[in-house]
């Protein structure tokens, strides 16, 4: 005799289900899934949620198959009761989730860093062009620029460091600035 025969009651099938018979459980599912789904759909109004909870109800039935109590010859009352509990649990979880979301402060507005990045890249590009331009200066002018501009020395201190008169440092600095005025734009143009 197969499980498909209609003369088997839910109680007959459930005895097999309790022993782990998957075919008997499939028959119970075929008999009652529509009723469980319809019950949940009417209570929720959402097809997807009703399908999910129907699956959860039958999963609970399989896991708790040894504990299921039938009413007379039907497992449907137990399934619908489990559906109600499953729905109540889902609603409580959703309520807790919403309460948590309300307590969590919204994330701070994150400024657009594109402008900063573009500015930083432009500055790096200009600095690289300046380094290349300074490298193209004659050695005596490059020394003055490196000591005064990059080293932070005033012209008098640079004169002492180089062992030359202050006027020489001033003249070299003037010539270096003039040359850099043309060299830096050339280096920047090369990058394009």
Polypeptide structure, described:
With 192 residues, the chain is an all-alpha fold. 76% of the residues lie in helices and 0% in strands. It contains eight helices and no strands. Helix 6 packs across helix 8 (166-191). The longest helix has 28 residues, at 76-103. The mean pLDDT is 84.
Largest sheet: none
Radius of gyration: 42 Å
**Strand fraction:** under 5%
Structural class: mainly alpha
Q: End-to-end distance, in Å?
A: 85 Å
Q: Tally the beta strands.
A: 0
- Please write the string of helix (H) and strand (E) elements: HHHHHHHH
Count up the helices. Answer: 8
Can you give the helix content as a percent range? over 70%
Stretches with pLDDT under 50, minimum 5 residues: none
Envelope shape: rod-shaped
Q: Give the rounded overall mean pLDDT.
A: 84
What are the main properties of this structure?
8 helices, 0% strand, 76% helix, 192 residues, mainly alpha, rod-shaped
Write the topology of this structure.
Blueprint: H1 10-18, H2 22-44, H3 47-63, H4 76-103, H5 114-135, H6 139-150, H7 155-162, H8 166-191
Helix pairs in contact: 1-2, 2-3, 2-4, 3-4, 5-8, 6-7, 6-8, 7-8
Give a brief rundown of this model.
This protein has 192 residues and is mostly helical. The protein has helices spanning 10-18, 22-44, 47-63, 76-103, 114-135, 139-150, 155-162, 166-191.
């Amino acid at each position: 005799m197969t499980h498909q025969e209609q003369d088997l009651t839910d109680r007959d099938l459930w005895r097999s289900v309790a022993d782990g018979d998957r075919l008997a459980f499939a028959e119970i599912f075929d008999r009652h899934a529509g009723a469980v789904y319809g019950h949940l759909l009417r209570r929720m109004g959402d097809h997807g949620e009703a399908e999910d909870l129907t699956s959860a109800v039958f999963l609970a039935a399989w896991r708790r198959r040894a504990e299921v109590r039938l009413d007379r010859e039907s497992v449907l009352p137990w399934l619908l009761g489990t559906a109600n509990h499953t729905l109540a649990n889902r609603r409580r979880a959703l309520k807790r989730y919403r309460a948590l979301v309300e307590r969590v402060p919204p994330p701070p507005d994150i400024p657009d860093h594109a402008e900063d990045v573009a500015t930083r890249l432009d500055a790096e590009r200009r600095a690289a062009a300046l380094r290349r331009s300074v490298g193209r200066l004659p050695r005596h002018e490059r020394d003055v620029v490196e000591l005064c501009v990059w080293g932070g020395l005033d012209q008098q201190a640079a004169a002492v460091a180089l062992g030359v008169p202050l006027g020489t440092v001033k003249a070299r600095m003037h010539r270096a600035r003039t040359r850099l005025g043309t060299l830096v734009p050339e280096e920047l143009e090369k990058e394009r």
